[in-house]
Amino acid sequence: MVEFSDRDIVKGLKKGDMSSFQQLFDTKYSLFYAFIKGMIKNAWLAEDITQNIFMKVWIHREKLNPNKSLHNYLYVLAKNEVRDHFKLKSNLNHQEIEDDDKSFVEDFEGSIDAEVMTKQVAAIVLQMPEQRQRIYLMSREEMMSNNEIAEELNLSVRTIERHIFLALQDIRKSLPAFYLFLFAIFNS
User: Which of 29-33, 108-112, 150-154 has the highest mean pLDDT?
Assistant: First the structure.
């Protein structure tokens, strides 16, 4: 197979040349697959996302600029796809938590064990640093998304995610084994 420069590949892509697309795919797929897999730690999803970025290149080939780096364009597509994946996953997890919380309340309403666990979690939350406590309560009680909390508190989403992670870690460390099991089921 003849090696083409990025510029030649882009020119071929803009014309709809499948051999240019094949050249791009053959030279860049493995690199971007490894990059994406390293970020999301899931081979199946990495393959899916990598295929999506190449599909997007083909779909939007007329917009490609032969004077700009094709590698950088692929990198930006990959980064955006991974970000979108994590954003969707976060939104789904938030919805699952909301659904789990409702289910938990319905299943264990009036149960002494649920009441005891709720009191224990509340006591643990009260011992957390003020910022972490506030973020945890906004997330779990007010059901605010990480983005909404970040915006309201003027913090980064990453900071919010870290505080929630640490809050859950504090709770998991402090709950007795039985309640830890219940907590894990309803907050995973």
Answer: 150-154
The answer for residues whose C-beta is within 8 angstroms of residue 160's C-beta and 6 or more apart is: 135, 139, 146, 149, 150, 153
Q: Is 68:76 a contact under the CB 8 Å cutoff?
A: no
Tell whether 81 is covered by a domain: yes
Phi, psi (5° rounding) for residue 129?
A: -55, 150
- Band the pLDDT of 123: cuts 50, 70, 90: confident
User: What domain count does the chain have?
Assistant: 2
pTM over cut 0.85: no
- CA of residue 9 relative to chain centroid, distance: 32
Closest CA to 11 of 115, 19, 37: 19
- 129 in the same domain as 77: no
- Domain, as residue range, for 164: 110-187
